[in-house]
Specification:
179 residues, extended, Immunoglobulin-like, 2 domains, 6-stranded antiparallel β-sheet, single chain, 35% strand
Length: 179
Amino acid sequence: MRTGLQIRVIAAAFVLLLALSACAGKAAESSLSESESAALTESVEAAPQASGGFDAPVVTPDKVSYMLSSPSTFNPGKFASGYLPGLLNEKFTVSITNNSAVALDLATLIVKGGTAAGECVDIFDGDYIMAGAPTEPLAVGASISFGWGLSCPGKLGDEFSVSLSNAGITYVEVKGKLA
């Protein structure tokens, strides 16, 4: 036989179970409009500060010069990461000269590539010295060069663009063709 306390505990558990199951039964209604919801999930990129082509300096308004060498196709090394089977693997050199008034933080630099067929992905490959952007700030008046690799959809000769950005600001965009 159950005691009064046991009956009250069972009854309370039953009421709690009903209350919780009722909460899960309805979907929460959003008070956001469709455009507000899209703004929260889509990234908005501003126009680049400067644009140009490969093998030519592209200078931003704050006097930082970026130059990307023409891309060339390569076969990633045995321990490379990021490349995808069936895509073209492109490598190039990024050269930066800081003629601005402040040191340039390269540790958070984002390199993005794309073709008409889709977005490219980064390749990291020690054999080709492609390890990402330098982590030390680039002093005023200093220059640096480093290798970069992208695995891109498309075929030889397709339009290809690379943008360099940081914190939602696109510094430069360079356009050319897949090698």
